[in-house]
Structure formats: structure tokens, C-alpha cells
Amino acid sequence: MGVGAWLTRASAAFVGIGGLQTAVAQTGNDPLQCMTGGDSVPSVGVYDFVFDNTRTLCVAPKEDADGTLMPCLRIGRIYIGQARDEVEKETGSPGRAFGDAGYAYLVYRDTIAEEGAYYAVEYERVRNQDVAAAIQLTGDPTPTGLHFSCLRLGDPEADVRRQLGLPAGTTPFDAPEAGVSGTRWEYRAPFSIEIVNGRVFGFRVWRPRGVPAGERTLSLLRRP
Fold first, then answer.
1. E runs forming strands in the chain
2. Which residue range is the domain that position 192 belongs to?
3. Nearest to 82 by CA among 28, 130, 15, 13
4. Cβ burial, residue 2 (10 Å; 0-12/13-18/19+)
5. What is the dihedral of CA 135, 141, 145, 151, to 10 degrees?
6. Helix or strand or coil: residue 182?
7. Which residues are bridge partners to 116 per DSSP?
């Protein structure tokens, strides 16, 4: 059974869901909660990608529809086009800087188990404001429940195939600072996933070519 059983099919890659606020209220008031699909059907969540036969769909409220995949380019509550001050309301201050406009934010650390995870966010300047242009979440499974398209750090690669389909290509990668190496799954959509020992080690999303840089606010993730 395909995702068509869950969603109204659309010819475009973007699927707008009407009445989503009602559905959110019925599932515990968490706008990012996923509805589990099952062993062979991908899960469905708001601002998430889902693979349906030959297409990667972006599921989001109609209020955020713009005909692009931008609404689903998010990891946790951090998303492409988000202003830096809004990012840091979620992450706190960065732990370190890298490159020309990149910052790392600690998400989780267990000094006893020697485990941890962090965000890496690269910004671009738009109208005197820094906005997120690329986002990565890397490391060990976290207790915070952060996810990208209903996938979490540490999930088995079989879950990735069910949710997003097979990658368009793969490349090896090394992360010497973490002492690991693995395979990067690269998709035609603007995201990639790092796999280490058969499990998810990292997610990365970025602003696609052809989409102008600009600030964006996702309607269900607005903070008061």
C-alpha cells in the first residue's frame, strides 16, 4: 500500500494538508508528531518528506505552500530560511564557529557514555539579517526526539529506505573528530543522510539552487 492511502495524491512534489490544526490537536498538540505508517508504509508528519512509489513528497499545511520543497527542509524545529535569532531561541548560543558563517550548537552530551550530538548551521546574509542556508544534525541518538522526516539519529538504514526511498547515489565520508567513517546517502532532493554501521549518524538539508535566499517562518512553528 502506498502513501496515497494516507494522502490525497498530487502531481506536484508538494502536498498541502487542509484542517491540519485539528489533526495536530488530536495527536497531543505537537505539530511535529509523526503518524506511524507500519512495516512497509512510511510515516507521515507535518513539514516532512515521504516517499510514494517514484516521488518524494513534501507534506505541509496549505498556509506554507509555495510550490517548492522548502517547508520540509527542517531538522527538529530548525529550518532553512529561519532567522538566526529564531534559531538560537531553540538552540541557545553556539559553542563554536566554523568557516565563514557557520556555527555549531550542542544538542546533547553524556560525558559518562561519551556520547553527544550537535547542530551545525550555515547562514547567509539577507536584507541585513542572517538566515539559515544549510543545517546538519550529527551524532548519537538524543533523548530530545529531534527528527528529520520522521527519522532520528540511530535509526536503522531500513527505516530510511522506507521513509525516503533509495538514494540517487552514495559516497564514503570520514568524521575524524567523531572517530567514525561511513556512507553518505545523497538524494535528488536537497538533503543527504550519513550512515555509520547501518544506522543514521547525521542529516543535512540546504537551500536548493533556483530558490532565492530569504527569511521564512513556518506557520505551525511560530513562537509567541
1. 14-17, 48-52, 55-61, 74-75, 78-79, 96-98, 102-110, 115-126, 129-139, 169-175, 180-186, 191-196, 199-206
2. 3-221
3. 130
4. middle
5. 70
6. strand
7. 109
pTM for this prediction? 0.87
164 closest CA partner among 56, 35, 59: 56
Domain count, the chain: 1
Predicted pLDDT at 216: 94
- Look-up of cell digits 529564531: 86
**Identity (one letter) of the amino acid at 122?**
E
Q: Where are the alpha helices (DSSP H) in the chain?
A: 20-26, 84-91, 157-164
Examine the pLDDT at 137 and tell me if it is beyond 70.
Answer: yes
Query: Residue 152's CB: how many other CB atoms inside 10 A?
Result: 17
Each residue's pLDDT tens digit, 173-202: 998 887 899 999 999 999 999 999 999 999
